[in-house]
Amino acid sequence: MAPPPPLSGGAAGLDGLLESAGRIRANVERVMSGKPEVVRLALVVLLAEGHLLIEDVPGVGKTMLAKSLARSLDCTVRRIQFTPDLLPSDVTGVSIYDQDSHEFEFKPGAVFANVVVGDEINRASPKTQSALLEAMEERQVSVDGVTYVLETPFMVIATQNPIEMEGTYPLPEAQRDRFTARVSMGYPSAAAELEMLQSHGTHEPIDDLEPVADAVEVRKLIEVVRSVHVAVDIQQYVVDLLTATRTAPELRLGASPRAGLQLVRAARASAALDGRDYVLPDDVQELAGPVLVHRLLPTAEASISQRTAEDVVAAVLRRTAVPDASSTAGARRR
User: Fold this and answer.
1) Which of these, 5, 30, 43, 109, could form a disulfide with 93 (CB 3.0-4.6 Å)?
2) Are 69 and 109 in contact (CB under 8 A)?
3) What's the rounded Cα separation, in Å, for the pair 32 and 40?
4) Distance CA 282, CA 219 (A)
5) What is the CATH number of the domain that holds 256?
6) pLDDT averaged per 10 residues in sequence order, the chain, 334 residues
7) Is 182 left (phi over 0), alpha (psi -120 to 50) or beta?
8) CB atoms inside a 10 Å sphere around CB 284
9) Is residue 184 part of a domain?
């Protein structure tokens, strides 16, 4: 196997990433106490140039996580409160006729920002939800035949409540597939909840958050992550996992090729956050659940027998042959 190209920026690039990512992570954890794994996943998605879907019951901090990550970055941030009467033009923008110039002038919508926080995304109609499809996949917006390119970084952080069905519209498969990963907040531990009552009871810690990184710095971190080496054996392992979901009898929809690309990107980011310039099978296994589960559709029989997509991914990971970690690491060092 030929030796891979050197990492962009060398050790200094990776050291710089660890320092910058550590600052962002510590800043968010000032608000999101007791949820280090959730904060880490949000940071992985940011560095993987992806989008994050935060799905859980009300009151567990979904919006707080999105807002604290956005406030930690000195870049443009827009929030969209999704409601049934929200229009696609509110998201993408609209062309308005200017009486003075006698020309149409484009007024950008809320999606024109580095970080877009979409609260309760499943409360908007499918027509409005679909306004995000082009932006999330192609990082551009087309209005009235004109295409507008979005700035980098561009990240959508959306929240939704999976339990409440009244007045909501479930995200279609195409929309869910655009999200790199899905995370569930879960209830805090007793100690973390007590700390929250003490710190949030009289003051909102998020009000004190100051940006610790800007858009230029995030772009540099993304370039470092792009250069993390992924051995051919790791790539084949990802393909084997995807194929296994497509042939699983419990699923009527398996993982898409887009899922594989985003799993590799997320694994690169995870490896970089661990101080490595190469991806290990452990990185793929750790992220397989968050990246794949929300894209899969169980069959009716599997649902009746309470066989979830999480169960299927866990079974696929158990029965898929894992490449030798030492060979993937050794290829990077040569």
Assistant:
1) 109
2) no
3) 11
4) 26
5) 1.10.8.80
6) 42 83 92 88 96 86 88 92 93 88 88 93 91 93 91 92 75 92 86 76 78 93 95 96 95 94 97 95 96 94 91 95 73 52
7) beta
8) 26
9) no
Cα–Cα distances in angstroms (integers) from residue 99 to residues 104, 105, 144, 164, in the given order: 9, 10, 19, 46
83-87 contact pairs (CB < 8 A, 24+):
83/120, 83/123, 83/124, 84/123, 84/124, 84/125, 84/167, 86/124, 86/125, 86/128, 87/128
CA distance 132 to 232: 33
End-to-end CA distance of the chain: 10
- Residue for token pair 């710089």: 16
Beta strands in the chain (DSSP E): 52-55, 73-74, 77-81, 93-98, 103-108, 115-119, 140-143, 146-149, 155-160, 181-183, 213-214, 251-253, 297-298
Would you say residue 6 lies in a domain?
no
What residue numbers bound the domain in which 334 lies?
229-334
The conformational region for residue 120 under phi > 0 = left, psi -120 to 50 = alpha, else beta, is left
CB hemisphere CA count around 139 (13 angstroms)? 12
**Cβ proximity of 167 and 123 under 8 Å:** yes
Which candidate, 267, 287, 286, 273, places its Cα nearest to that of 328? 267
Give the DSSP letter string of 154-192. -EEEEEE-SS--TT--PPPHHHHHH-SEEE---PPPHHH
Residue type, 90: D
Helix (H) / strand (E) containing 56: none
Q: Is residue 305 part of a domain?
A: yes
Is residue 87 helix, strand or coil? coil
63 in any annotated domain: no
How many domains in the chain?
A: 1
Residues 181 and 43: their CA atoms lie apart, in Å, by: 11
**Separation between Cα atoms, residue 47 and residue 285, nearest integer Å:** 18
pLDDT at 2: 40
